[in-house]
Amino acid sequence: MGCFWLILLISLASTLNSVCAYEPNWKSLDTRPLPSWYDEAKFGIFCHWGVFAVPAFKADWFWYYWKGPNPDPEILKFIEKNYKPGFSYGDFGPLFTAEFFNATTFAKIVKSSGAK
After folding, report:
1. 89 near 63, Cβ under 8 Å?
2. Inter-residue contact 80 to 73 (CB < 8 Å)
3. Which of 2, 64, 75, 84 is placed for a possible disulfide with 68 were both Cys, Cβ 3.0 to 4.6 Å?
């Protein structure tokens, strides 16, 4: 009986080794085949969602307009009015909870749009 388990383990290990054939670099990852739908889809949606959604003010480039070379006076005023002194962009992290996100609703909207 022990021989059976050894053969099964070796067989499983070799299968997993052939399945995980990619290395953690772009040259290796770029050898992956594209799924057929990727080239066949006519319309897609790219969703970019991050901590900038916490203040949900002005733009997704919120940090740049707040701390960049030419800070936007509207954003500076917004921060001053709504957050304590010394508040940093990283402080938005724990506030990013996705509490009101509903994946089912989002998927229905995307599907009804015709995106693939």
Report:
1. yes
2. no
3. 64
How far is C-alpha 62 from the geometric centre of its chain's CA atoms?
A: 18
Report how far residue 90's alpha carbon sits from residue 97's, in angstroms, rounded to the nearest whole number: 14
Residue 95's nearest CA partner among 87, 105, 85, 103 is: 87
C-beta separation of 91 from 52 below 8 A: no
pLDDT band at 9 (very low <50, low <70, confident <90, very high): low
- Write down the H helix ranges in the chain: 2-19, 26-29, 36-40, 62-67, 73-82, 103-113
Query: Can you give the pLDDT at residue 71?
Result: 95
